[in-house]
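Hey there, shall we discuss this one?
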Amino acid sequence: MYRLRRNLVKLIVCVGAVLLSVPIATLQAGNSVLLPSVTGDNMVLQQQANVPIWGWAEPNEKVVVAGSWDGRETTAAVSADGRWKVLLATPKAGGPYTITVKGGDEITLKNILIGEVWVCSGQSNMQFTLGKGQRWYTGDINEETEVPVANYPDIRFFTVRPKYNPVPQDDCNGVWVQCSPETVKTFSAVGYYFGREIHKKLNVPVGLICAAYGGTMAEAWTSREGLASESEFAEMLAAYDKDKAAYPELRAEYDKKQDAWNAAKSKATAEGKEYSEPQPKKPARVPNQNSPTVLWNAMVHPIVPFAVRGVIWYQGESNDLDKRSWQYTRLFPLMIRSWRTEWQQGEFPFYFVQIAPYKDMSPEIREAQRLAERRVANTGMVVTTDVGDCSDIHPRNKRPVGERLAKWALTKTYGTKDIAFSGPMYKRIEGIKGSSLAISFDHADDGLEVRGGQLTGFTIAGADRKFVPAKAEIDGSRVIVWSDEVKEPVAVRFGWANCPEATLFNKAGLPASPFKTDDWKWETDTQ
């Protein structure tokens, strides 16, 4: 009822503002205090933190907020533009609790838990649901066994409805729900498996906020301020702004031509004649879901500054398909930095998935992601070369992906011991002996192993930069690589293919990341 009442209030206020041409704030007198959708019944708040609770009310009034865990009241003065925010100190994980918000009237939020909160974001492979749905929602490979047992009332889901907007939005469409066999079917499979593992290992409530939109670019998920901070992406913004300004005129011109074409065709048809004139070409809509900033504006900005522990991320396919993986080496770190800047919660954990093998997915996107894990603080990367599907950009085996993300969080964020959280990562060329190179790895202290019969996937090159298939053998935590065709090798690549075969693992059974040792020009480097 509260959601319905709040939305009705918003509708009345907005319609009144339009009809009367006066600021919304002046129409709020006597109306209830308003909250964003992400703040509601069934939500999980981050434990042992000063969590922001915010919303809107009559300007210059006061709003009083209290949580039932301590009953302490916190008061906020409403600003001239009708906004307010308080910080509530939360206890250790537990609940359920209530929160009261008193303004023009009183709101009571019920069934609130305190625990760990994570954002699950990216494009379609994060949006991919545990259960089957329409279009490409084919369901997780383990759907039949996983859905019926998904009774975890202390795991809560909030899914942001996919939308884009050219300007930052204050609110989004979504509602908190408890995890059940019914609700889990339409939630992110990767997010669910991640959250379930955190819940089981830590024995605390877990809140998962999914903001994902299929087929989208990283720049659409980046704030305007973030893009504007670097010249390369400031130019991208300028081009977008120019296209956005030009679109209405282009669309009007197209509509006029299309009307004329329709009339001419109808006339020819009525006269029994063939009409062979080509249809006018429809201009690409600007903005669209891949325009710079638009997903940040509509799907992330509305949930900031909701207190979170960190982010899990699965995206990059669209940037690679657009032949911009080399650019991704700068864009992706910039996007992460922009999120952290806007959230103002420090360098919170940002764990992401390396793109799975697929027939149209170049190795350069995986290298861009590997470099991000090396260069950006408090990040981690899950390798998926053993759980991809070369014929499907949406591989259905999501459980290992979510559980591997959880291994990163459990180890690096929560300090859990004795968990192997990463597969082997290229460290350096350790030595050159004759015509062979010794490659050393991080996350291989217990040694390396071959799975699938034979160690494959290595190529080697000399100064001529011509890579040829290489032979390889394991030497403890190193791999020795050579080829009879290359007498003086200088560079090695591993898994450098659209669909690399996973053969190299550590003793924990986690696959090695594809890599290249050279810094030679990328195919997608257009400069």
Summary: Residues 1-31 have pLDDT under 50 and may be disordered. The CA atoms of residues 351 and 380 lie 5 Å apart.
